[in-house]
Structure formats: structure tokens, C-alpha cells
Amino acid sequence: MFQQLGVIGCGLMGGSFALAMKKAGLVRRVVGYSKSPSTTELAKKLGVIDVAAESALQAVSGSDIVLIAVPVSATESTLKAIRHLVNPGVLFMDVGSTKCDVIEASRRALGERAASFVPCHPIAGKESGGVQHAEATLYEGRQVILTPQPFTNQVLVQRATDVWSALGATVLKMRPHNHDAAFAAVSHLPHLLAFAYFQAIAEQPAARDYLSLAGPGFRDFTRIAAGEPAVWRDILLANKHEVLAQSKRFRTMLDQLEALIEAGDAAALEAALRPIAEGREAWGNSLPAVPPGRPAGK
Questions:
Q1: What is the 3-state secondary structure (H, E, C) of the chain?
Q2: How does pLDDT run across 108-124, given as a tens digit for each residue?
């Protein structure tokens, strides 16, 4: 058991981690800090944290495990603010959706102390952010990706693995570049497409009429366009090279399908669509069931 969890960023992810740690009986006390004092106070009122800290450094003081749940663009400034309390033996983790930039930020901010920082990415989330939507079961049955570096303290890597496993998650390890390339393909580009697709319809003169006719397929496709814009701004910019590479691949495939439609070649169009449909069905059948009422994650 940990004596004290310090949470920097008492939103959905940080709040859910705190609740999960409490539910699992892994921590005696939770101290939380958010940039907005009202968020920290709400977290305390809801029982997510036990003590509201006035600074990130205060949240770290006395903690033997720290979760940094801030936008990826704020990682470096956050680590600089707590640098003097990043001590060996204390487990520091993040929840950022990009890893190469986060790791570089940790090296710049912490120097040799970066050995205590274990980069993490829980594949979990909701469209609705904020601590009021935090839940103790958010990480159950989900994957958590760790991207430790050669200099990362291996004892802390194992401790991070044990913590996430105890919360019901499946823990995987990846190289940071491989992580960012993979999630550009399966998460970051889909969000970009959903934003663009919804707005392309919303800008049309008949948008209200079109949207009134939209069914479950449209809702499923555009669900992630309701994500927090500031969060996705940071992710798309932090991983821009991989996102743009995936976007080019998508454009190439779209161009090919559009050419078949333009040509009116029904046989060729069906021949192109069939293996895609079969591949998607096979992939879908191989997936574990998602808990009822919960989106599939980021």
C-alpha cells in the first residue's frame, strides 16, 4: 500500500485514478492539485481527493506515488515545478496520449531525476471530461501502455505495472516512437477525421435538416468529435508528423475509392470494398467485449 498519492490534474483521468486507488485499497491518503482551485475543491467535495493542495509541489510533498494528469503541452512546466521533490524511490507517472514529446520533456525538466518518471498511456476515457465524471472503474479491462527508457528505474517500472494491474488494466510495454505511430493511426487520425467530417456537414446550409435525419451510424462515427478541443489540439500538434503521415495514407485510399465512384465501375468498387468489410468484421470479432454503456476509449 502507498501512504500518499499526489494527483496533479484532478480531471477525469486523474480523478478516476484516485478513486480506483481508493477502491483497490492501495493508498491511505490522496492529495490533489489542479490549476483551477474550483476543480480541486470539487474533487475534495466529491471525495475524489482527501486534501486540496495549493500547488503541484505541495501535492508531491510526502507522496510516494504521483500521477501527472495534465495536457501533454503542460508536462514540461509541471515537471519543472516539482523537480526538487522528484526523488529516487517515488513513482511518477503520466497519462499522456503521446509519448516521444513527454519523454523529451521529462529529460529536459528533470535531467538525471527522469529515472523516477515512468511514461504511461491508459487507453481509456469519455467524451465528457472533468472530475465530476470520474469513476473508479474507468481503467478496468483497459490497456495501459508503458514506454520506459533505458535510464528508467526498473524497480519503478515494475511498480507501475503492478499498480495498473491491480486497478484491472492490462499493461503493455512499447517503444515511444512505435506508440506514437500506432496511436496516430488508431486514435489521433480518427479524431481529426471526426472533427472535420462533422464540421463539413455543420457548415452546409441544410445542416440542421441533415442532422435531424442522422441515425446510429452517424452518431457512432462522430462521437469522438465531442472530445475536449484543447486536449486534442495538444495531441495533434505533439504527434503531428505521425498524424500527417497517416492522413496522407487515408487520402490515398479515399482518392482510390472516389476514382471508382467517378468511373461508375460497380464491379471494381464492390471488389475494393469487400476485403475492407471482411477485414473490419474479422477484426471486430476478435475484440473483447466493451463494458455496457462505456465508450471504447481514446
A1: CEEEEEEECCCHHHHHHHHHHHHCCCEEEEEEECCCHHHHHHHHHCCCCCEECCCHHHHHCCCCEEEECCCHHHHHHHHHHHHHHCCCCCEEEECCCCCHHHHHHHHHHHHHHHHHEECEEECCCCCCCCHHHCCCCCCCCCEEEECCCCCCCHHHHHHHHHHHHHCCCEEEECCHHHHHHHHHHHHHHHHHHHHHHHHHHHCCCCHHHHHHCCCHHHHHHHHHHHCCHHHHHHHHHHCHHHHHHHHHHHHHHHHHHHHHHHHCCHHHHHHHHHHHHHHHHHHHHCCCCCCCCCCCCC
A2: 999 999 999 999 999 99
